[in-house]
Design brief:
By secondary structure, the chain is an alpha/beta fold. About 40% of the residues lie in helices and about 15% in strands. Bound molecules: pyridoxal-5'-phosphate. Pyridoxal-5'-phosphate binds next to α5.
Length: about 450
């Protein structure tokens, strides 16, 4: 491998001059130059070290620089770098049974794509072709990817510039307890009225027109929204009652992030279709997947599936996935996420106790968020100017993180240790003193 010889300034300048950045006005981007990465850390060409408190994009679950995955990619490249989508290969033969050990219920048949959005595109097609119905119910606080269909399912503001999108998408509200419109006036807490709301929407849209309900099992970038117990089993029952497929998007929540292999495992439900990406290869190479139930797989045994990709089941990506899953099994990465998830929840509690700006701290496993507010009473979000100061402090002190609006996310690689978590949270603790100054 050629050693990197560029200065940080040169790297940033050339990247900015010639390449186009996502979700940004191009003049506003301010990338951190990344030279190398190991474990939970990465370094700039100047030698500045960052704790990767977002696993890049909630995706490098096993941490950076894992030798076994790197070796598997190198060996696959030397053996067979590419095979067309109609070919069989050893990587394709090995990934299925390995993945099926961990996917829930009878989700034992997989269609491979190159990322999460493509996985959701194909889940839409599978659901429509299998049911012969067109409409899809999706939720407002959601992100499902940036391609045409996936961005149409997306409920948040990222959809607006792409509208009008796919016809037939109907949106419903979320089980968002901190700001729940259904339960806010109920002193007894959660009424699960959000499920009654979905049932009413199903009835008015006509169950005979609805192919699927699409959800992020635990909502990601819209705020680590963990459904109340009973929500997922209730939604599963609703879908069964009306003959509608349940599709769970586990692109972000899957592969150990929540302390289980898949988030659905917390509530023991089996969706009809589950989509995945990110942690599937820990993002060492691009790969997404759609897992489907036996009844859907059987339907397509005799019926042609109208969908395809040049890079379907790419051997190099599959080799990375096989090695990633083996690392996860042998190093008990999911168990570590569960154990460190408890440590992180306690650290969240400490921040909530100490800082008036923390309206609510939520987490499940190592999937966490601090919801920062100007007032705990009104729950008014912390203003953007204050959030920028918090982010600037974290960056300056070597903590790479993801923030969206007033949400500060805590999503470290799943290999993180207790001392490393405590180091990271000490930096966050200091930064929140800035946010506290804006609290009224
Ligand atoms: C829940 C969810 N679904 C889908 C996607 C899209 O995945 P990709 O960016 O690989 O297309 C993302 C990406 O962040 C996601 O978080």
């Amino acid at each position: 491998m050629t050693a990197i010889s560029m200065s940080a300034e040169e790297m940033v300048a050339l990247c900015k001059q010639y390449t186009f950045w996502s979700w940004s006005a191009q003049d506003n981007v301010n990338p951190i130059p990344m030279e190398r990465a190991e474990g939970i850390y990465f370094w700039t060409p100047d030698g500045k070290r960052y704790i990767d408190m977002n696993s890049q994009l909630m995706c490098v679950n096993i941490g950076h620089g894992n030798r076994r995955v790197i070796r598997a990619i190198q060996e696959q490249a030397a053996q067979l770098a590419y095979a067309g989508p109609s070919m069989a290969s050893e990587a394709r033969a090995r990934i299925g049974p390995l993945l099926a050990k961990h996917t829930p219920g009878d989700l034992n048949k997989f269609f491979f794509t190159l990322g999460g959005a493509e996985a959701n595109e194909n889940a839409i097609k599978l659901a429509r072709q299998f049911t012969g119905k067109q409409k899809i119910i999706a939720r407002y606080r959601s992100y499902h990817g940036a391609t045409a269909g996936a961005i149409s399912l997306t409920g948040d503001y990222r959809r607006w510039a792409n509208e009008p999108g796919l016809p037939g998408v109907v949106r419903v509200f979320d089980p968002y307890r901190y700001r729940c419109a259904f339960c806010k006036n109920n002193p007894g807490g959660c009424t699960m009225d959000c499920l009654n709301h979905i049932e009413e929407v199903i009835q008015y849209e006509g169950p005979q027109t609805i192919a699927a309900v699409f959800i992020e099992t635990v909502t990601g970038t819209n705020g680590v929204i963990v459904p109340p117990d009973g929500y997922l089993p209730g939604l599963r029952q609703l879908c069964d009652k009306y003959g509608i497929l349940l599709v769970c998007d586990e692109v972000m929540a899957g592969f150990g992030r929540t302390g289980e292999w898949f988030a659905v495992d917390h509530w023991n439900i089996v969706p009809d279709i589950m989509t995945m990406a990110k942690g599937l290869t820990s993002s060492y190479l691009p790969l997404g997947g759609v897992a489907m139930s036996g009844k859907i797989a059987n339907y397509f045994a005799k019926n042609v599936y109208y969908g395809g990709l040049t890079y379907n089941a790419h051997p190099m990506s599959l080799a990375a996935a096989i090695a990633t899953i083996e690392v996860m099994e042998e190093e008990d990465i999911v168990g570590n996420a569960k154990r460190m998830g408890k440590v992180m929840a306690a650290l969240h509690d400490d921040l909530e106790a100490e800082h008036a700006s923390v309206g609510e701290a939520r987490s499940i496993g190592l999937f966490g968020v601090l919801e920062l507010v100007k007032s705990r009473q009104t729950r008014e979000p912390l203003p953007a100017a204050e959030m920028s100061k918090v982010s600037a402090y974290l960056k300056e002190h070597g903590l790479y993180h993801f923030a969206s609006g007033h949400l500060l996310f805590t999503n470290p690689p799943l290999i993180i240790t207790e001392p490393e978590l405590k180091d990271a949270f000490e930096i966050i603790n200091q930064a929140l003193a800035i946010a506290d100054q804006a609290v009224q």
